[in-house]
Protein: Universal stress protein
Amino acid sequence: MTRPITAGVDGTEESLAALDWAGREAVRRGLPLRVVHAWRYAESLATADRTTQHAWASEGTEQAVRTVRERHPGLEVGVDVVEGGAAHALAAAAAEAETLVLGSRGYGRVVGFLLGSVGRQVVAEATRPVVLVRAGGKATAEAAGRDVVVGQQGAPEDSAAALRFAFETAAARGATVRAVRAWTLPPVFAYSPGSLKLLDEAGGLEPYEKQALADALQPWRERFPDVPVAEHVEMGSAAQVLLSVAGGAQLMVVGRRARRTAVGARIGSVAYGVLHHADCPVAVVPHD
Structure:
């Protein structure tokens, strides 16, 4: 089954920026584009029945899609106008998508993204990658060759999904993957004889972290030999280190552990921090 690039639209400037981004990505990947708009029947509009309100929603969505069709005449575009809650409709659409693209307001690294309740819920519950795009700035001005920055944490398998997404995206764009691994000094009681032996063999903490990043990247370098790779290892919190190199990014990719807690699904601290402070589009990739 060919999964589409799916864009959620609601008529706002941010969602139109997301639709534009999704259209270009679909062309790059050779995938169809699916556009989803969720609407709710408003009983307060006594002069308009459900059929009329659905027609209004459909007309507004078609107007948004018309520009994409004109800009990419060869692109296969499907449109779904569904009645119901936006979060539920978009989460369902994400399950069938290669990538779901949403709009989000934001004003740069100080204020960052203003991620609304729908965006938070969809990002937290989606089983497929979700890209957050905001109007203006780097969302609509992607310079060729700018980096796709991706965070790598833990063992190779922990970040395989995010690395795969980053390499596939960079390959489609002719961009460089800048892989970032942050590390901190562990508390003394966290050291064990086994870990101390590994650190001693690696020559210390920083060389150990550099080797861990190199090991995680190796299979993806082999799979994508034409994608340039830059490695960045720095001491600090993961979100802060990622944001420190975001100035050269056309896209930031972070992982999110797909698990539910007693209080429901969560975005995760690293993804949350990047989403609220990056000034480029951010892809959140779930993993087990």
Remarks:
- Residues 108 and 279 are 5 Å apart (CA to CA).
- The domain at 1-141 is CATH 3.40.50.12370 (Rossmann fold).
- The first strand starts at residue 5 and ends at 8.
